[in-house]
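Question thread 4412

I'm putting together a teaching handout and wanted feedback from people who do this every day. The idea is simple: show students a protein as raw sequence, then show them the structure tokens that encode its fold, then repeat with a second protein so they can compare. Below is the first pair exactly as I plan to print it.
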Amino acid sequence: MESTRQAKISRLLQKELSEIFRQQTSKTHGVIVSVSAVRVSPDLSIARAYLSVFPSAKAPEIIENINRSSKTIRYELAQKVRFQLRKTPELSFYLDDSLDYIENIDNLLKKEDKEISEAEQHNEEK
């Protein structure tokens, strides 16, 4: 169960990380990184950020680069939240592939609908 303080810090970190990634990805044309969720540990020392990357083909490479530069990102984040938080949590970044999962389900459903309509047309011809 997430406490009220954890939820508030999660929202703050999500907002500020989103802004940091928006500024950084404006330089790289064609790549969009968005922060879909942030989970903070109960002692507020560790934050796990879940990122959505578009296009998803570049996602593993982008996440790897972000994890390599997590110290720099943490420093930038600390500058932005220095008046709200005493200590900035350690950051770790994970790929949020829920959008790919949803897209896959949509494609499967469309395929199923197409197969059903083709079967109905075949039955009507008989």
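The second pair follows. I'd like the answer to focus on this one:
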Amino acid sequence: MTIILRIFAWLLAAAVTFATLGPARLRPHSDLGQNGEHAFAFILIGLAFGLAYTQSRLRTSMITVILIGILELLQFLAPGRHARLDDFIVDALTACVGFAIVAALDWAMQRLRAFRTSAS
């Protein structure tokens, strides 16, 4: 199952990278607005990588934030794209929220298992 989660996480990262650096006309648009679209995409990144790399979640989240910064800076090289600090902040924070959700769910599941084991 872990390999499937990792493949999904990296495919999602590739899709977000294409949407970020590719032509604007090929990027999906929604009624969420720019910040909403960013938040949705990067919370999914945090959730996916948080599920895929459970043993090193803190390190993975730090690497993810660094790569989000690099992705934002690469927009300086992409025609018609603009790197913005507020985009980076939204992207990094929502990715971290995704990691935190997965960590909280993992913690709750472990507590539930421990409770069931001690009750038996």
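Top answer:
Good format. For the second protein you could add a caption like this: The chain has one domain: 2-119. Residues 24 and 37 are 13 Å apart (CA to CA).
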